[in-house]
């Protein structure tokens, strides 16, 4: 089904992904190179403009299928050419059902009924139909441009679940992730509430990881990677242990909020009896198409954030981000280690400062992200350049100086964060900030040395509070017929 969808619309750059040996979900970014991360969020929309999104497949399905009436219809809809069931086709059959007098209820129902009669079945937009491959050298959701909606959720195995139960869970989860990333309902569709029934996969990615505690609980201590050693304590940490760590981790991203929640709900349901949610965080990024052209996203402090991420076209990119094929342990080949930090921003404090002060704090202009040493957003910052008064244009404590690989023995990481806002605190301040996600081949050559420096005090840290922390081993992408982590659990 989904292949057909992409074929008809053209599979140009964006979240249709390259699916090449380079790994799954490598969207490329028109006009700005294949830069992963927040900056690429608009690639899909930019692609849509040039790919004739109007030629929708399945446009003639209305009235031909079995109307999957009601909530569980996702599992009883029209068969697609690949032998599965497609929400896209169900959109057509639902229209037919409406004409046949299905109770839709209320004004919305009346509107839907009229719309179903008047309009030909509308094709999904390119945003809805964007599909990221599940299989590949790397799991999807690392190189994939960061989506507009994200959920991060950690699970702990229940006391009597061991290696066998964990393997069965990863097999179930992988199958469901694979299905949903193609716009199909999850495994066990009879229990599915059809939350995203009318939508395509909308760039859905599901990424799985293993925490340090998983290995003791499953008798796999001999396979624990050295890279999962606990992160050091940082002096400014104020970590909530209940929202930190975990045996298992899932990152979900999609450009539609219902698609993202649907995946979260399905995966949580499938964990029942084997693992319990430990914590969950919800985040967001700019929506594809919100800007005039693909632009690097902004964080909640208003800064352009993601400019100087390592790029896949750089020669040392793969070795910085991914465990090599010959790396140890062997089950982590093609994998990566992700550090999560929930970082609250002191926005009320931040807002009191002038734009000039805010720019000095980072070392870049707020308007266009250009470094204070001159040039445009993508000009390399000149850390040696001085102003007329002899002082460095990028201050000694500016965030980009303190975090730059040049200041940290080459340490680098791929940042792919989500913003979050969870209401207001007792003092009235927003509980908002960054779900900071850093991907690297080894945290000791990525996050750790840089955070040690930040902990000693850069200008930005005054406005930040690290409130939760976790580190997970994220294995390479599965091959066809495999589940994520099979090399660990069965190797
Ligand atoms: C330990 C690593 C890092 C943490 C924690 C971190 C938090 C954090 N950063 C911003 C905003 C920006 N960061 C920028 C650049 C940047 N940040 C890190 C690392 C951490 N940031 C690195 C390695 C870099 C790149 C440095 C370089 O090579 O130039 C920028 C500038 C634009 C960009 O390149 O992305 C901003 C803005 C926030 C708000 C934050 C915590 C909430
Ligand atoms: Fe940063």
UniProtKB/TrEMBL annotation:
<dbReference type="InterPro" id="IPR048327">
    <property type="entry name" value="Dyp_perox_N"/>
</dbReference>
<feature type="region of interest" description="Disordered">
    <location>
        <begin position="280"/>
        <end position="315"/>
    </location>
</feature>
<comment type="function">
    <text>Involved in the recovery of exogenous heme iron. Extracts iron from heme while preserving the protoporphyrin ring intact.</text>
</comment>
<feature type="region of interest" description="Disordered">
    <location>
        <begin position="1"/>
        <end position="81"/>
    </location>
</feature>
<feature type="compositionally biased region" description="Polar residues">
    <location>
        <begin position="297"/>
        <end position="310"/>
    </location>
</feature>
<keyword id="KW-0408">Iron</keyword>
<dbReference type="Pfam" id="PF04261">
    <property type="entry name" value="Dyp_perox_N"/>
</dbReference>
<feature type="compositionally biased region" description="Basic and acidic residues">
    <location>
        <begin position="358"/>
        <end position="368"/>
    </location>
</feature>
<dbReference type="InterPro" id="IPR048328">
    <property type="entry name" value="Dyp_perox_C"/>
</dbReference>
<keyword id="KW-0560">Oxidoreductase</keyword>
<keyword id="KW-0456">Lyase</keyword>
<dbReference type="InterPro" id="IPR006314">
    <property type="entry name" value="Dyp_peroxidase"/>
</dbReference>
<keyword id="KW-0732">Signal</keyword>
<feature type="compositionally biased region" description="Gly residues">
    <location>
        <begin position="51"/>
        <end position="74"/>
    </location>
</feature>
<protein>
    <recommendedName>
        <fullName>Deferrochelatase</fullName>
        <ecNumber>1.11.1.-</ecNumber>
    </recommendedName>
</protein>
<comment type="similarity">
    <text>Belongs to the DyP-type peroxidase family.</text>
</comment>
<dbReference type="InterPro" id="IPR006313">
    <property type="entry name" value="EfeB/EfeN"/>
</dbReference>
<dbReference type="InterPro" id="IPR011008">
    <property type="entry name" value="Dimeric_a/b-barrel"/>
</dbReference>
<feature type="domain" description="Dyp-type peroxidase N-terminal">
    <location>
        <begin position="139"/>
        <end position="285"/>
    </location>
</feature>
<feature type="compositionally biased region" description="Basic and acidic residues">
    <location>
        <begin position="1"/>
        <end position="10"/>
    </location>
</feature>
<feature type="domain" description="Dyp-type peroxidase C-terminal">
    <location>
        <begin position="296"/>
        <end position="477"/>
    </location>
</feature>
<dbReference type="InterPro" id="IPR006311">
    <property type="entry name" value="TAT_signal"/>
</dbReference>
<feature type="compositionally biased region" description="Low complexity">
    <location>
        <begin position="31"/>
        <end position="50"/>
    </location>
</feature>
<feature type="region of interest" description="Disordered">
    <location>
        <begin position="358"/>
        <end position="391"/>
    </location>
</feature>
<keyword id="KW-0479">Metal-binding</keyword>
<dbReference type="Pfam" id="PF20628">
    <property type="entry name" value="Dyp_perox_C"/>
</dbReference>
<keyword id="KW-0575">Peroxidase</keyword>
<feature type="compositionally biased region" description="Gly residues">
    <location>
        <begin position="11"/>
        <end position="30"/>
    </location>
</feature>
<feature type="compositionally biased region" description="Basic and acidic residues">
    <location>
        <begin position="377"/>
        <end position="389"/>
    </location>
</feature>
<keyword id="KW-0349">Heme</keyword>
